[in-house]
Structures are given as structure tokens and as C-alpha cells.
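Weekly puzzle thread! Below is a chain. First person to post its structure in C-alpha cell form gets bragging rights.
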Amino acid sequence: MNAFSRRGACPALSVPMQTGDGLLVRLNPVSGGLSPKLLIGLAESALRHGNGIMEVTARGSLQIRGLTEASAALLATEVDALGITVRTGLPVETGPLAGIDPQEIADPRPLAERIRMAVEEAGLTQRLGPKVSVIVDGGGQLTMDTLTADVRLVAVRIDAGIQWQVSVAGDEQDARLLATVRDDAARDIAVAVLRMVAEKGREAHARDLSERQLASLAGWLCLTGLREAPPSVLPDISPSRGEITLSLMVSPISGVVKEKPASKLPISPPEGEMSGRTEGGASRKPIGLFPLAGDTFALGIGLPYGSVPADKIITLAQYALTLRTIEIRLAPGRALLFLGQPPAAKQPLQHTAATLGFITSATDPRTRIAACPGAPACASGRIATRDIAEAIAAENADILDFTLHISGCAKGCAHPGAAALTIVGGENGAGLVVNATAKALPAGYRPGYDAARGVSRVAAVIRSARYQGETATACLTRLGLAGIAEAYRQE
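Winning reply:
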């Protein structure tokens, strides 16, 4: 194993990524979950070959950190020996309760598999970049609303039948709707969009598609009878005005007309909560009890800041095994779902998880904090992110109705998007970034060891300044950059 993926690519089991604390690998079991015994075996392998830290990402992938070139190869061999088949190729993601949630509108797995097969048959797998993804969301108790994707297909009920809304470039709030169609058409449109993305190169995403390209796709949909062209896609171009010529009507399924670069699709990028958007929306966190068919349930248990020592996962999985847990699934939102145990197992399993430091309540303030491993776990980290996060969660839970990002360095691995507040480690100490990413210029600094007190100063100002019924998020907006920075710097 001598090839490492660059930062920003997907660190697959066969191509680990270099990070500040060694090599990192990411894997997704094809089965969607693991038996407790398999998870224990995987965690033991992580202890032998990595630094003992395991993570569940925001998208529900499992990560193992602190590997070397030699130990990463040994880990891959042991994963294979355990019989764990990991998914490769284009990520086509479904919800963690897909196929077993009695509240879902449709089982998304068959359509997801058909999209995977169609992408392979079209020869697109090697032409698409590692960060291109598709989401197929069947609805239910745990939706995929907050996850961004190049193509997203969401099940809806129409006239007692089930169809799929096909959108591009974004999450459920800001993706651009193309069509609402049945399964076959949904698959074809998804492949058409991916083909267009592939034509732009391996660095491209659906957000890079031009109005003209989407217009050609909309016109093709009309000619093939899949649907009428939606005004939202064609603000200035429509077939009736003769501005989509036959030369543009080459089927995007079989090929795409090359054209001169056009203006990018006018889709707003994800923004922080202070701009009015609340991260997470109405989506339920994957923590707590989720009733399934009959008298069964799934119990969601969160990883604080997305990671825990592997020995704690081993202890929890061993106890779950004694309670007759059959399967443990990875859930978007940095959690594990325990399935198969009898109802009487709920309380003891939650109690054991809480004792080990896991998150057992969706209202736990740690769910609002994104924190990377930081110092000393990561060589790139300049501040002890986890210590800072724990102090803030314990002292300021009442004001955390927004996402707080604590980043050991400016790379912002734990939360690449904008957050209402970000504490970022740098050569000048712990900087405070407001409504932006960790890469932005901080508005003020404190010594790294004192960052938690700085946030407490901001929290005190929020408590004294906010109106009755006003959220902390809205209060931060009203205080503005200067007011927040001044509070953070106060002694």
C-alpha cells in the first residue's frame, strides 16, 4: 500500500489519507451494519494498528485514525479476514433505517442499487470525482435532509402512488428540483446528471453545471415525456421559445453536448445559522428510541464529537451482545444504531453507554459542537479541542441552539462548512471566527488554553442581551461581528 489520497479525497480502505495524526481510512459496510462481534473485531484491529481512535462521520462512515503505511495494509488484511465487505465506487447513500422503518414512504435500497449498476454500466465510476455523491431518501424517522449531494432522490406520495423528487446540488433545503417521476425515470435522470458532471472532469460537482446544461436536460425530459419543464429550472430558456435547439437534444443518458463554459448554476452555498438557516432543520437526530415493526426498536447512541477510543466501542458492543443485539448500524450524524435487542434492554444499554461517555439524549449539548481530535492527538492541532468542547458543553448548554465548531487548525476537518461560531487554533492562539469556516480570518484571539472562557464571555452577553423568546442564534446576529469579538476577548 504505497498510494495515499490527497486531502479532500475519500480515504478508502485501499487508499488511506495522510492527516496530522497519521494515515486515516474510511469504510462503509455493504450490508449497512455490523454484528457486535464484527464491530468488536474491527475495533480490536484499530487498537492494534492505529492510534486507538474510531470515528463515525457526519455522513455515517466509519473512520480509523493514526495508521502507518505498514499498519494500514495490515488493517485492510484483517478487515478482509473478518469478512467485512466495504462499499467502493460512487457513494449512493440511503438512510440508516432503510428497509426496516415502518414509517418510510418507500424502501430506497432497490433504486439505489439500480443507480449504482447504471453508473457502472455507463462507465462513469472512474470519471467522477471522489466527493461526488447521490442520496436516495425513502423518508421515515431518520431522513437524509441535512446531507448535501450532487443528486438527491426523495420519495413522495402522489395520488396514492410513490414517486421520486430528483434534485441537484445541495441538501433538502437548497437543492434544485428537476423532476418528480417514477423509479425508472428517476434512475435515468440521476445518471444523466452524473454524466454531465463527468464531462466537466473529476474536480466537478453538480453545482458546476450551467443553466444551459440543465436547460438541455429539462428539454430532453419534455421530449421523452418524462415531465414538463419546471419554470424553476428554465427561468429564461424554454422549448416553446425555440431556444433549445435539436443539437442540444442529444440524450444526456447516452452523451452530452460539449459547450463553452457558461455561468454556474445559481444555487446558494450552504450558509451558517446566523444567516437565518437553522442547521438540521426538522430532521431528527439519530439518538434515542426508534420503533420498528412489531415490538422491536432501534436505539441510537451518539459518539461525542464523532469519535471515541476503540476500547470504549469494544466495551459497549460486548455489553450489547449480552443483551442480544443483532446488528449495529452506522448513522449519519455521528451515531450508532443498535438493533434486535428486546425492549427491556433499552435502559441498561443506554445507562452503560452514558457511563462510558457516549451521548444518549438528543438534547445533549455535545450534539451542537463539532470538534476534531485536536492536540495532542493530531500533529496539526494547535489547541486541545476536546477539552475546550467539554468545558463549553458543561458551562453553556443553555445557549447552544447553534453549531459551535472547534478546530485544531484552519483545515476545519470536523465541520467544513460555515458555523455560527468557530474556535480555531493558530499561531496566535485560539481565534474566533463568526459565521464562516475555520479558514476565515478570526475576529479576535485568546490563548488556546483559555478559549472556553472566551466562549463563556460570549454566552454571558447572549444571556443578558437577548429578548424574551429570542434564540441565541438570533441574538448573535443582532450583536454582530464587533460585539461578539469584543465579548470573546474580555478578561
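Puzzle host: Confirmed. Bonus trivia for everyone else. The longest strand covers residues 149-158.
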